[in-house]
């Protein structure tokens, strides 16, 4: 057997560079690069291995190193990269032990919740324990084999700790299996003790050969298709709910053909927005708690709901109130049986595109389609909502514009294939309702974990994955203050982003929620502490535009919508990362569809506002359904 003598760190780098994914006959590099922040836990192992790879001059076949500024942000960038590539490729992230590692835990949870592949390689404590406790080591008196990296276990789809070099090959192969499994994918964590990383071993040369991991289009069980078709063909008011699985499967064309052939309108989850163009008459738009009046009215009367690639979050179902028909039935198409079984639905465990093709054949053979009058009603509701969107885009609110107006200008200035990216605050809900989608890859809102701080790092990852697209990062002041660090990485790498910084001097989204539960926007504005000891003084003089400029970003300050439009046009044509700053009115929300979200209100309270909110809450709870 031919062997190659390398350290564990060098072996990991060489192995990852040789991995490929394949679907429909097209191959991709599975791991395209590695973000890293070095410390004593990884500098001599993975860090040295990445250096040797860079010095080898193999820019095409080697593993490219990317320097991060915050470990959580590195993971966000890798997740956004994977999403933009429809889960066919991703990035690895390496950190030192201790705080560097635990900083990645939030990113791992985000990846797993969103079913997106990312490989995490945190350093770990000494396997030999000769220097215990090492710097940043957590000591557990009851077990010496525990470190802070055990925090990755519940948020990873696969976790292993490599105590000996001999364990590495099987761990690497298992990691790649999970990363490329559409039903199981998420964060994969391989914890690497710092002494093991530097240890040399004679590896089988075969470990480093190019390896192709097929990503299957899992076909549906014919019996499941028959059961689903039997339910659908008796529907009078069917509705499709399209989730992110449609996009990851690259099944948007199949969805359009299915909807058009059978006259079924389509509502979209946050991850599924972009599965249909907004100007398609059968596109009812966003559904659920942040939905449109069109989709939610159709949902209220739907007798059969066909979920395709959705995990049925509480926002999608409006906390199980949006589907109001007493006898409503669900058909769930999902590559993961866990999600396909939700809502007591008829489960079709399959790739979205394969399942749509099979269902289309079964329904065509049955000669079924929805009534023309129902199709016409769906088109009428969609057109009515588009008029509402246009009114929101042109509010002309003074003295500060509404957030909806800002979204409208970004939608107008951006191109057909450009990407809008967001994650947390009030903007994701407004974008879900108002953004006019034109391309399957043009809408990127992380709402599975809705993680503040994702936006700028996510924009970096999306641009790395699709350098031919302009990426518009929409970030509020709250999220910007959480994590603007990767602006420095964008400047360093010469990666151009357009960052729209919307400043409403606080946490506007939670302010609205706080008011709705009777808590009077407590703790949601950025204000000085006043003479009465409360945070109700003047606004803090935080200058986010100046902060961005100090990080090397080109900044354009605007005050009016007209100034904002001119600046955004300039930013889009710029050749470097540009931040466009504007203040908006936090009290002027987007048009409502009157959907509900279950956030429990205090059952007893001295405040009249809270008591009133509790009464409204109890009334809303009456509409909640178990969907059994």
Beta content: 15-25%
Q: Class by helix and strand content?
A: alpha/beta
Query: How far is the first residue's CA from the last residue's CA?
Result: 58 Å
Measured on Cα atoms, how large is the radius of gyration?
A: 25 Å
Query: Stretches where pLDDT falls below 50 for ≥5 residues?
Result: none
Give the beta-strand count. Answer: 23
Describe this protein's structure.
The chain is α/β, with parallel strands linked by helices and 628 residues long. The chain is 36% helix and 18% strand. The chain has 23 helices and 23 strands. A 6-stranded parallel sheet has the order 5-4-6-7-9-8, with helices on both faces. The chain starts with a strand and ends in a 7-residue tail after the last helix. The model has no long low-confidence stretch (mean pLDDT 96).
Walk me through the topology:
Blueprint lengths: L2 E5 H10 L1 E5 L2 E4 L1 E6 L9 H10 L8 E4 L3 H14 L5 E6 L3 H4 L2 H9 L4 E7 L33 E4 L6 H12 L7 E7 H4 L2 E5 L6 E4 L7 H11 L5 E5 L1 H5 L3 H11 L3 E3 L14 E4 L6 H9 L2 E5 L20 E6 L2 H4 L5 E4 L2 H15 L5 H22 L9 H11 L5 E4 L4 H8 L8 E3 L8 H12 L5 E6 H6 L3 H8 L4 E6 L4 H9 L27 H7 L3 E4 L3 H13 L4 E6 L24 H14 L7
Parallel strand pairs: 2-11, 4-5, 4-6, 6-7, 7-9, 8-9, 12-13, 12-15, 13-14, 15-16, 16-17, 18-19, 18-20, 20-21, 21-23, 22-23
Antiparallel strand pairs: 1-10, 2-3
Helix pairs in contact: 1-2, 3-5, 3-17, 8-13, 10-13, 11-14, 15-16, 15-22
Core attributes:
628 residues; 18% strand; 6-stranded parallel β-sheet; alpha/beta; 23 helices; globular
């Amino acid at each position: 057997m031919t062997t190659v003598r390398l350290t564990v760190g060098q072996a990991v780098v060489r192995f990852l560079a040789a991995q490929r994914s394949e679907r429909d006959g097209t191959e991709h590099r599975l791991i395209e690069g590695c973000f890293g922040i070095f410390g004593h836990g990884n500098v001599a192992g993975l860090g040295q291995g990445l250096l040797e790879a860079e010095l080898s001059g193999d820019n095409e076949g080697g593993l490219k190193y990317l320097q991060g500024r915050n470990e959580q942000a590195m993971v966000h960038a890798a997740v956004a990269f994977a999403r933009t590539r429809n889960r066919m490729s991703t990035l690895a992230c390496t950190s030192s032990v201790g705080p560097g590692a635990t900083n990645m835990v939030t990113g791992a949870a985000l990846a797993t919740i969103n079913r997106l592949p990312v490989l995490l390689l945190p350093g770990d404590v000494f396997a030999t324990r000769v220097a215990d406790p090492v710097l940043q080591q957590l000591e557990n008196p009851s077990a010496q084999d525990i470190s802070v990296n055990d925090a990755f276990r519940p948020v990873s789809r696969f976790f292993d700790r490599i105590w000996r070099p001999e364990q590495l090959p099987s761990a690497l192969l298992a990691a790649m299996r999970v990363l490329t499994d559409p039903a199981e994918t998420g964060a994969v964590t391989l914890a690497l003790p710092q002494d093991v990383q530097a240890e040399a071993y004679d590896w089988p040369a075969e470990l480093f050969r190019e390896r192709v991991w097929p990503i299957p289009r899992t076909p549906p069980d014919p019996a499941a298709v028959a059961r689903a078709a039997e339910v659908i063909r008796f529907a009078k008011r069917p509705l499709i709910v399209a989730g992110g699985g449609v996009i990851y499967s690259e099944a948007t064309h199949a969805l359009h053909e299915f909807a058009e052939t059978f006259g079924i309108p389509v509502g979209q989850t946050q991850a599924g927005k972009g599965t249909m163009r907004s100007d398609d008459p059968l596109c009812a738009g966003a559904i659920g708690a942040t939905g449109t009046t069109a989709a939610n009215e159709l949902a209220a009367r739907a007798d059969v709901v066909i979920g395709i690639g959705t995990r049925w979050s509480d926002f999608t179902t409006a906390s199980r109130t949006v589907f109001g028909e007493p006898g409503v039935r669900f058909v769930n198409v999902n590559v993961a049986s866990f999600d396909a079984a939700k809502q007591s639905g008829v489960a079709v465990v399959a790739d979205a595109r394969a399942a749509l093709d099979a269902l289309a054949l079964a329904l065509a053979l049955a000669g079924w389609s929805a009534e023309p009058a129902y199709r016409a009603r769906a088109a009428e509701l969609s057109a009515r909502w588009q008029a509402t969107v246009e009114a929101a885009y042109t509010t002309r609110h003074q003295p500060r514009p509404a957030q909806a107006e800002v979204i409208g200008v970004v939608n107008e200035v951006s191109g057909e294939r450009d990407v809008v990216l967001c994650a947390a605050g009030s903007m994701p809900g407004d974008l879900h309702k108002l953004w006019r989608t034109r391309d399957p890859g043009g809408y990127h809102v992380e709402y599975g974990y809705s993680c503040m701080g994702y936006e700028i790092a996510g924009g970096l990852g999306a641009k790395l994955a699709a350098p031919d697209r302009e990426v518009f990062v929409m970030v509020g002041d709250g999220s910007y203050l959480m994590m603007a660090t990767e602006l420095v990485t964008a400047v360093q790498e010469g990666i151009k982003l357009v960052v729209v910084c919307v400043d409403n001097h606080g946490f506007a989204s939670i302010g609205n929620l706080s008011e709705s539960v009777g808590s009077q926007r407590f703790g949601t504005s950025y204000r000085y502490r006043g003479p009465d000891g409360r945070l109700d003084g003047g606004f803090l003089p935080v200058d986010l535009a100046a902060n961005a400029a100090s990080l090397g970003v080109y900044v354009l300050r605007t005050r009016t919508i007209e100034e904002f439009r001119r600046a955004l046009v300039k930013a889009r044509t710029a050749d470097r990362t540009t931040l466009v700053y504007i203040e908006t009115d936090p009290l002027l929300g987007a048009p409502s569809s009157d959907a509900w979200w279950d956030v429990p209100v205090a059952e007893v309270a001295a405040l009249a506002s809270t008591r009133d909110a509790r009464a409204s809450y109890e009334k809303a709870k009456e509409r909640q359904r178990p969907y059994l």
